[in-house]
Amino acid sequence: MVYELHGTIHQNFCQKCGRLFGLDYIMNSKGVPHCDKCGGVIKPNVVLYEEALDEDTIGRSINAIMTCDMLIIVGTSLRVYPAAGFIRYFKGRYVVVINKDNTPYDSNCDLVFNEDVVSVVKNLK
Ligand SMILES: [Zn+2]
User: Fold this and answer.
1) Domain boundaries, the chain
2) I want to staple 70 with a disulfide (CB 3.0 to 4.6 A). Which of 94, 101, 123, 124 is the partner?
């Protein structure tokens, strides 16, 4: 299961009427995308700077971390909160970090790959 803490560009909505649009509609728009029903501006369902993360998604993410046996952390410096703090909810056995640069938690992990994420993940079997 994937919980998209920062949202997704695959879901978009009219800021005026709430109508939903897929990525195809956005990609086929010229300039700022507008709603075909009311003319409102369409915004991707992503969390921008200074916007709050979705509370339900946070809860589901923390619950998944609390109940898994192995936590694999990929492509994050673990320096940006609140997501960086989610690791403290982990009660399982193994923590693996895959990130090009080191993180503050590397010394507490069972396995650390400070390498290019794509090259490491490609070799996972
Ligand atoms: Zn609209």
Assistant:
1) 7-46, 68-122
2) 94
Q: Report residue 83's pLDDT band, with 50, 70 and 90 as the boundaries.
A: confident
Among the listed residues 4, 6, 79, 96, the single catalytic one is: 6
Tell me, what's the pLDDT at 107? 94
Q: How far does the centroid of ligand 1 lie from the alpha carbon of residue 49, in Å?
A: 24
pLDDT of residue 124: 83
* Cα-to-centroid distance, 38 and ligand 1 (Å): 4
Q: Under CATH, which architecture does the 7-46 domain have? A: 2-Layer Sandwich (3.30)
Mapped onto helix, strand or coil, the DSSP state of residue 62 is: helix
Cα separations in angstroms, 95 against 42, 68, 85 = 39, 10, 14
What's the 10 CA to ligand 1 centre distance in angstroms? Answer: 17
Q: Look at residue 41 in the predicted model and tell me its pLDDT.
A: 97
Q: Is 34 a residue of the active site?
A: no
Helix, strand, coil in percent for the chain, rounding step 5: 25, 25, 50
